[in-house]
Amino acid sequence: MSNWQRFLETFFDPAMLAKYWPAILKGMAVTLELGIAVVVTGLGLGLALACIRSYRWRVLNWLIVMLVDAFRALPPLVAILLLYFGLPNVGINLSSFAVLWLVLSLVLAAFSEEIIWAGITSTSKGQWEAARSTGLTFSQTLVWIILPQAIRLGVPPLTNRTIAIVKNTALGTVIGVPEILNQATTAQSFTGNATPLMMGAIAYLVLFIPVVVAGRWIETRFAWKRA
Amino acid sequence: MDILVEQFFNVEIAHKVLPLLLRGLGTTLWLCLIVIPLGLIGGLAVALATTSLRRALRWPAVALVDFFRAIPPLVLLVLLYSGLPFAGVRLTPIEAVALGLGLNTSSYFGEIYRAGIESVGRGQWEAARSTGLGPLQTLRFVVLPQAVRNVLPDLVSNTVEVVKLTSIASVVSFPDLLYSADMARSLTYNQTPVVLAALIYLAILWPLVRLVSHLERRVAV
Lengths: 227, 221
Description:
Chain A has helices spanning 3-11, 14-53, 58-73, 76-86, 96-122, 125-133, 138-167, 180-191, 195-222. By secondary structure, chain A is mainly alpha-helical.
């Protein structure tokens, strides 16, 4: 057997490919489902927190900053392990899927709040004053004048952060969420062959390469032209 | 309330596991001292390739960056640690972790440097070259100082991400802070070690997160 054949046999064994593609496909569905859930709740919560912060209620702002700082500083895997093994002790039983979703949503919310808030504070005071003087209320000004600009300004960093955080769904394997990596390592431990791992890696590339390429496009599309 | 204190803030257990966690912290910091310079230097090389005017250099570099940005670092780590032995290459845990995190981090730092270099503008290159500076001198004395200043908040912010990222090394049994805490948790049946580890991470990274916010505000003005 030539080296090339042995390589193919080890990393791309057709029998393994045939046997395990349904498992990997199932993993892709779980990863996709988690990814979409995290993006929706994470960005939604981040936007909501940034809006609440712009009303500048002292105590509430202080709490938001604490929450945001904590989730920017804490490694997500630490939060995942803490919630997954800790919550049952206080009588809260969440599934591993729910824990992963909750933690990654909070992390994404923290980063997106910071980015949108930076956008809100960078719009000039004159815009607020002009909008208010036309009779718009504070909330109307925020929603119709300030947020569209703040969000536009934040699109490139938001895209990057979102991709990086959604990739962290792979951390779910540690607490047994049946996503791609989990399916791949489980299959690998049964077979003693590297094919399932390669399938897992390829599954991630299939899901994320289009997102990364789209991210590049969005970045140039929304970039502020510098002189 | 008692259960909460007993399970999450148990002073006795905290006292017992602290030396173990500090040893783990030492390993984490040591790993950071390998991975951060690796990423900063590798990233610069990546950025020079992705901003190169030569297509033969630029395209493969962009493809490589996109590859490492698309693949989750944990997947890369598992591939290097459990996949490579099948090809006859057996890496020690530290080699696998340093290589995996180094490749991932270089790609991210590379993108940040690229944004910085692009923000300086081609005219500066041309002006510097026309005064008689060589390409390396232009890079060293004209472009990089401005590029780094322009993206300083992102560089610091990504450094925070790298420190956080080292925690995934625990998954391949690398005895870092999180690994030690998780070990202690399963030995004591108590959450205090992980809470303690979380507090240690916060104590190190929270000031850095504040610094990032501060730098971002200063650059934005």
